Amino acid sequence: MQNTATGLRPLTVVRQDVSLGAGRDLEFGLELLARARNGGIGPTLRLYRPAPTVAFGQRDTRLPGFDAAARACRENGFEPLVRRAGGRAAAYHQGTLVVDHIEPDADAVAGSKARFGYFGELFAAALRSVGVQAAVGEIPGEYCPGEFSVHGTDPLDGSRRVKLVGTAQRVVSGGWLFSSVIVVEDSAPIRKVLTDSYAALGLDWDPATAGAANDLVPGLDVAAVEQALLETYAGHAALETASFSSLGA
Questions:
Q1: How far apart, in whole angstroms, are the C-alpha atoms of residue 17 and residue 171?
Q2: 90, 144, 166, 240: least buried by Cβ within 10 Å?
């Protein structure tokens, strides 16, 4: 149903102020997807700052160095988890913003690839609005590489590009969950844990590609990026706000 005043579809925005814990945060997104597919909730945008986590892909678990990589995560203060989506290991902490967009959709599979491009451009636009030279596309040597990653270019060194947003998607019959992580602050711990875990896995990558938005725009923080994201979203949907308690976590 569209909002008759704006012509835009409604989207309920829910801010989760406190992490539920690394594992519970990840699982709760899947629970919301299950509710959406069964008609329990409508289109929902969940925003939160996560506990320090390294989310490994399924392929990572089959590598002989996986146990050592998990130990390296714990030694760095990050909880190792395995996500159901594809890709390689990605790290995040409270200096990042996780964006879970959940929608019921009778034909969820049909638009699955197009969603990556759509959301990549949306996140890049939000970052550009706060001064980041952001664009969509994989950069050489990036961690958890993806065709629709969002990267930023250093305004003082055009040859330096860092990955800022990674995305993953879960599609089921009757709905989809598009989850994105925006790295905004404090990139050093992320770079360190990725360096150690990728070394254990035996995967090649360039640590210089791990960065944060405020490495490129000093002073930028998560609150400013969240506000910019919502302002960008407002051009695509009629935003409504609900309390996190309404989701019954």
A1: 26
A2: 240
